[in-house]
Structures are given as structure tokens and as C-alpha cells.
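Hi R.,

Here's the chain you asked about this morning:
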Amino acid sequence: MQTVTADVVVVGSGMGGGTTAWALARRGIDVLVVERGEAIPREAANLSPREVFINKRYKPAETWLDGAGRPFHPGVHYVVGGNTKVYGASLPRFRESDFGRIEHHEGVSPEWPFSYADLEPYYLQAEQLYRVHGATGEDPSEPWRSEPYPYPAVPHEPYVADLAQRLRGAGVTPSPTSMGIDLRPSGACIRCRTCDGFPCAFDAKGDAETCALGPAMATGRVRLLTGVRVRRICTDTSPGAVSHLEAEGPDGPLRILADRYVVAAGAANSAALLLASGNADHPGGLANSSDLVGRNFMMHNNAHIACMDLDRRNDVVFQKTLQVNDWYHDGGDGKPLGTLQLLGKVQGIMMKSWATRVPLAALDVFASRSVELLVMTEDLPRPDNRVTLAADGTITVTRRAAGTSTHAALLRRAKRLMRRAGYDVIGVQPFDISMNSHMCGTLVAGVDPRRSVLDPYCRAHDVENLWVLDSSFFPSSAAMNPALTIAAQALRAVAESALGG
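And here is the predicted structure, written out as C-alpha cells:
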């Protein structure tokens, strides 16, 4: 069996893993990043809606089970850079209130073990690292900042600027979206129509490979193993410390040794790995004395809406520059609703991936006159919503969404808003369990080891040299895109805990 060693091993190369590797490299630490997938090649298919959305070229041929035992294909990507390679690059901060206890219509969003103020310096660093463009003073929900955005907001194209005026006339205050794209004076971004949902053919998206892992490897302190899947985290020499990892690669089994270990495989896969690593000392799964490994699974309550103006064509190319957060903190009854965000411009062939029975010609007509938004509200943690393993090791996700009444209320409000703004036809695509790109909460962080899996720096309570740095640690989902918060916490853990040496 081949043996590979490093000071720190990082499992996963997405937002958490890539950012962690970058931060460790800056401290002169020898890092090995282990990624089960390969790098996405730069090829014509990067720009093809049919290849990306219909043929699902970059998605794994993997099946999970839902709580009823029904199979589904998960919305994950096993590639270098993880899901950030195809995300929409929306990189907002969570709001200050998101770190506290919040009463919702259907329950409580719990307090985090650290505050917005604790994370704020690392939000700044993450925004620099991922080239975040934004503006302050327009979003009624925005949190305080100690410094301005590193780059100005992405300008609206004329169609979106007109939409912003329509929305103001309808009584809300649209604001620029925080975007991680390379629009610096010498930047690579050409603001094309194949960004949201596509791998960037120009390395202009603020993804983990381009902005973090690549620069980290350039220092000579970070190595990358691809095509290697970690199967078990072992504690052979002491129940309170990882001794090694067991993995499989293209050339057979590997034994991976380090002083410190970071798991950043995503909320479902990280929990599954800990569950698969149970032994006599950890019979319920590694780091699971609280019985919370895999529990409190959350994913945002999301829907796409496509709004058609019969009298006007939408000629926009880069659409994802506007959001509406008027009801983020309060929908009028003291309870929060969520956010509305423009999506990247959806083409007819992309709609075909969902509206399979509608002729493509009809979808092309609809898309030529539609604008698309994401309606996002918070899920709430429930212990019975969980990741488990079937007898053959297949990941099983059991979920009964919490906060559905809140989501329905925001969806109704979004439809009324868009009709007041002049849109005649509105189509809705609700998210199901397969569209789970904002998974979180399965290895929750907290102060009390009886009520959490990880400490406030994401080190496992039960295993002294193991950290988990992806969205698994989230005590709540908030109602904002999670990627920047993952990156900021990774930077904080390296800077302030024993992980950084």
C-alpha cells in the first residue's frame, strides 16, 4: 500500500478545502489536498448549455436515496474546485442577525457559537481572495463593514437597470448583488451568458480552484492528489486522534498520514465519511458522542421564477447583478422572509432540463422575453432531517422541510411584485431534494460537546486533530448564499486555532 504524508491533509478542494489550503500555504505549512474528482478541462463544452444542463457533462453518475428509499441524482460536482466551478459566484455575507437566535413562523433559527463581529475581518479577506464586487448603502438588510468592498459593483445592463426602476416604482429597494468575478482592469471576465451554472472557460469566476487552490499550489507548499477517494478516517493509535486516512486512487489503496486533518467534502459527504469511519471507540461514527453527526440537515427553501413581459424582449447577457432584500429581516409581522436574486440569463435549452414536455421552440420564445429570479428562504434545523448510510454505503438524505410557509409567503410576494413591475406570465420551478447545492448543518458547531459535533473553530470535540471546514458546521442556513461564509470561517480557523500550527 502506498503511503503519502503531509503536515496537514485536506479532503476536498471546494470553497472550504481550497480556502484552507491557501491560508495554510501562506503560513509555510506543507499541505496535501485530496480530491476524488479531476479538474474540469477547458473545452468547448464549458460554453454549451446542452452539454452542461441536458447532458450533465460535469455531474457525477451517482445515486443517493431520499428518506423513503427513492433514488435521486444529487446536485453535487466532484471536480477540482468542487461546486464553486459551476456556482453563480454570488458571494454575500450573512447578515449580523443571522448569527443570533431568530424566531420564524415555524420554529427557531439557533444562535451561532461566534458572532458576525468575530467573522467580519475574515469576510474582508475572503472578499479580497475571491475578487468580490459590490456596493454599500442600497441594501436595507446589509450588515456593517469595517472596509469597503474590494471592487465596485458589477454594472447593470440596460434591461436590468430598467427592471431596477420598475421595482422601485413597485415599492421595493433593489440593490447590487455581491459577485465574485474578475472584472478588475486587467481581469479575465468578459461578462458572458455562460456563467451561472457553467464552468468558466476563461478562469474569470471566483471559484476555489482559480482563486485559492491554484495560487496555493504555486507556492510549492501545496500538493494535489486527484482521482483519490477517502473511505475511512482511522483512529488506530488513540480514540481521540486521527492516525491516518484510508483512500483509494487510480493505482490502488493509499494510506495518508498527517499531523492534522481537515474534511471539506460538503455537508452530505463529510457527514457520510464520519459515519463510515465508526469503530469500537466510536461505534456511532467518528466524532459522534453527541449523536448529531448527520443530523440537522438543511438546504434552502428555494424556487426559480421566470417572469415574462409579452411586450419586451430581454436582450441582457450578464443578468445576475440585482437583488431585493426588503423583507429579509421582517416580512411585516416581525418575522423574516428571505431574499430575491436575479439568476444568470436562462436560455430555452436550459429550461428544457426541467420543462421536458414543452417544445424547445416555445421555450426559446419564452426565454427571449423572460427574466429569472431565485426566491430563497431559510430552512430550519431538525434532528430528524439527516444524512445516513444505507447498508451498502449509499448516502441517504431524509428531509421534511421546515419554513415552507415562509417560503410560500415570499413566493406570493415575489409574484405580486413582478406583476406590478409589468410582467404578464410567471412560471415557477420549485427545488426538490436533488437540487441541493446549499446543503448545510450536518456537523453543527457549538460550545457544548453534548449539543454539537464541532467547536467554534470547527475542530471535532471528540477528535483533537480533526477539523471540518465546509457548510456542515452551520447551526442555521440563514437565507443567503453560503460560500463566502464557508471561506471566511476557513480563514478564521487557520488564523486562530491549532490548525494553523
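One quick note: The radius of gyration is 22 Å.

Cheers,
M.
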